[in-house]
Recover the amino acids of this structure.
């Protein structure tokens, strides 16, 4: 038995079937999401009469920024969100949208059959970096835009459970 939740599944999930959602809408064209990473600092200490053993305790936990990449189009989701954090030339008091510059993000993972199998919620996100692609007349590729998103934590959505995987039956020969 390979996986205890679904004993008929032999392979782990692939990393290329996913969707990103914020403001309740799927964001079109996202082609890459960097890894979610959480790090807890280690606090080292010793007891007064025992200098031979170093004790370890957990310290501050930090969540690394996540980068989202998509092909450059007329869609404005990345750009509009980035300008909520800093809008150059907006005038005194209007450079930052205090009301809604933070968003919660959902990353959904799908199996090969297109069934939702995992979801992760990322909390209190805001754009710390927005970049347009380098343009090169001698290149032959897609122009990508990027946003780097700071966050205050993420968790797996446990309401998303393992679906029943479909079985395909060959067409009958008539």
């Amino acid at each position: 038995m390979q996986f205890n939740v679904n004993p008929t599944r032999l392979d782990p999930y692939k990393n290329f079937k996913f969707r990103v959602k914020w403001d309740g809408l799927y964001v079109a064209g996202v082609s890459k999401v960097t890894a979610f990473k959480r790090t807890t600092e280690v606090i080292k200490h010793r007891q007064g009469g025992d200098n031979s053993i170093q004790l370890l305790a957990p310290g501050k936990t930090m969540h690394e920024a996540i980068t989202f990449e998509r092909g450059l189009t007329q869609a404005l989701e990345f750009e509009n969100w980035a300008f909520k954090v800093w809008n150059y030339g907006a005038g005194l008091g209007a450079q930052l949208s205090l009301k809604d510059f933070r968003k919660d993000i959902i990353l959904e993972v799908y199996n090969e059959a297109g069934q939702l199998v995992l979801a992760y919620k990322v909390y209190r996100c805001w754009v710390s970096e927005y970049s347009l692609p380098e343009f090169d007349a001698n290149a032959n590729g897609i122009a990508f835009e990027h946003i780097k998103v700071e966050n205050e934590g993420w968790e797996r959505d446990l309401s998303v459970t393992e679906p029943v995987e479909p079985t395909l039956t060959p067409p009958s020969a008539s």
The first strand starts at residue 18 and ends at 22. The longest helix spans residues 77-85.
